Each structure stands twice: as C-alpha cells, then as structure tokens.
C-alpha cells in the first residue's frame, strides 16, 4: 500500500517540480535473432528471443524523513526452431521503505517487499515423451517480506539494510504447482509464515564509467528456527548497461538464487541483448 501511494503521489497534478522527490524511470526492450539455412554445415538452430525490463524509483526526503519506493519488472520469451515458445526471464520485485535519519549516514526504517513472477514456468522434457512439468506461476511462489531495522547509506549509490526482525510470508496458491514443488509451504497449506527471521539487503547503483551503468541488489534471509549456513537464503540481481547512444544499449542481466527450500544447488539465469532503452530522471508530472 505504501508503494502504491508513493507512485500515486508522483501522478498528482503539479505546477512546478517537487524538489522533495528524486524519481527515475527506465524501460528497455532487447531482441536477439539468429537464422541458419538447412544445409549450414557448422550447425546451429534458428531462434528469436525477446527480453523486456522496467525499473522505476520514487524517493522522498524531507528533513530526517525518507520514503523510498522501487519497482523492477523483467520478462522474456524464447522461440527455437522446432520447439514451442518458452519463457526465458520472469521477475516481479516491489519494494517500499520508510525511514527516519538519526545520523548523516544511518536511519531507522520499516519496509516491505514482494517477489514473484508473471506467468507459468515449466521444467521441460522431464521424460522420454517430452512431458513438461509446471513448477511456478504468479504467487506460486510469491514472497512478501516485512522488515524493521537500521540502514547505512553513506552516499546516494550504496545502501546496506540490517533487519533483525523480518517476518516473511511464502505463498503457493496454484495447486498444480503445489503438486510438483512446495517451496517450503507445508502440504495442504497455501501460505507459510516465518515470523522469527532476519534479513540483510545491500544495493549498489551507479555509473562505473562513461556510458556504463552497473546495478546490483543482494538480499539474504535468515530463519532463526532453522539457523544453519545451508538454510540461509541468498539472492543477487545484477544489471550492466552500456549505452551506445541515447536510445540504443547493450544490456547484460543476471539473477542468482540459493534457497534450500527450492533446491540444494544455486539457481541462475542470464541474458545479453542489444535493444532500446528509454530513461527519465527527476521528472515532474504535470
């Protein structure tokens, strides 16, 4: 609700720029295509891929009070010759944080974030008959995490949040997904609640050289009842963007996840593409 209210404020009619808000909006589309003749001796498969991403921020600061809101959406499709269309990238991340500065670099905060995906995801060709197995969908899983703690923010491009109290709700609302994967949700339930938990979040977001931007967000979640190294969840999202000109860019994105309730090994996805990037910063809606 805080997140939606924050972006609603952005949309209110203004007669001049509101200097209390720092806003940014970035949207990109990347296309990848390859084609081979039937007699191409070196081998290869004709394919076409489409990736899209959207990043938006609305950060408010007035005196000691801060309110930061972020949205990150990613979605991609892949079509290889001779195969059905498949999903290559799918991520929904929403975050809102209300803070109060008690020093120049530290503030106390309360926050909420949500993580899920848009559409169904499959494990393909699980047997000799080419059967696909449904393993994810919107809100299956879905993670809603609340946090209370302190944030260290010495400059505009780096922040570290330490939350000794961070309860999390894990949702599994699609019964077909639940029959194949549980994501830590008990059998017969659609929600798992972890009340006694902690969370650590770190963000780095800046131009590392001319026309080259790097953004990384790390998150770890620690359940006090299952306190062991292999039970700590880790998540890293990173994007490297090289601008060719105002609208054309080369974009490298990667997501890394370790969650013992999902898999005992590290999960990752990666995409690289040339595409169109549209960016606005510090804008004021009239």
Characterization of this structure:
This protein has 2 helices and 16 strands. The chain has helices at residues 2-10, 175-180, and strands spanning 21-34, 47-62, 65-80, 86-101, 106-116, 121-123, 133-136, 142-155, 158-165, 168-171, 191-194, 197-209, 212-223, 233-243, 248-258, 267-281. Strand 15 and strand 16 form a beta hairpin. The protein starts with a helix and ends in a 5-residue tail after the last strand. The protein has 286 residues and is mainly beta. It has a 12-stranded antiparallel barrel with strand order 1-2-3-4-5-8-9-12-13-14-15-16.
**What's the pLDDT, averaged over the residues?**
88
Tally of contiguous helical segments: 2
Shape: flat
Query: Beta fraction of the residues?
Result: over 45%
Distance between the termini: 24 Å
Considering DSSP H and I runs of 4 or more, what fraction of the residues is helical? under 10%
Ranges where pLDDT stays below 50 over 5 or more residues in a row are 1-16
Judged by helices, strands and strand pairing, the structural class is mainly beta
Oligomer: single chain
Sheet with the most strands, sense and barrel status: 12 strands, antiparallel, barrel
């Amino acid at each position: 609700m805080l997140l939606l209210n924050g972006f609603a404020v952005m949309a209110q009619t203004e007669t001049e720029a509101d200097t209390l808000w720092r806003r940014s909006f970035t949207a990109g589309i990347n296309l990848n295509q390859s084609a081979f003749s039937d007699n191409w001796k070196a081998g290869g498969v004709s394919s076409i891929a489409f990736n899209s991403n959207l990043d938006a921020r609305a950060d408010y600061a007035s005196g000691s009070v801060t309110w930061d809101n972020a949205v990150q959406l990613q979605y991609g499709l892949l079509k290889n010759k001779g195969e059905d269309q498949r999903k290559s990238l799918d991520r929904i991340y929403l975050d809102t944080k209300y803070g109060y500065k008690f020093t120049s670099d530290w503030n106390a905060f309360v926050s909420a974030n949500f993580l899920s995906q848009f559409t169904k995801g499959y494990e393909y060709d699980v047997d000799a008959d080419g059967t696909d197995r449904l393993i994810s969908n919107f809100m299956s899983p879905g993670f809603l995490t609340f946090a209370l703690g302190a944030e260290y923010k010495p400059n505009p491009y780096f922040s570290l949040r330490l939350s000794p109290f961070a309860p999390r709700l894990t949702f599994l609302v699609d019964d077909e997904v639940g029959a194949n994967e549980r994501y830590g949700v008990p059998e017969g339930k659609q929600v798992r609640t972890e009340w006694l938990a902690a969370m650590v979040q770190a963000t780095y977001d800046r131009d590392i050289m001319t026309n080259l931007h790097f953004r990384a967000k790390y998150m770890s979640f620690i359940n006090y009842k299952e306190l062991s190294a292999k039970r700590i969840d880790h998540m890293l999202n990173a994007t490297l963007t090289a601008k060719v000109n105002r609208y054309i860019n080369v974009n490298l994105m990667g997501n890394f996840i370790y969650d013992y309730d999902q898999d005992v090994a590290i999960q990752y996805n990666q995409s690289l593409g040339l595409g169109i990037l549209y960016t606005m910063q510090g804008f004021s809606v009239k």
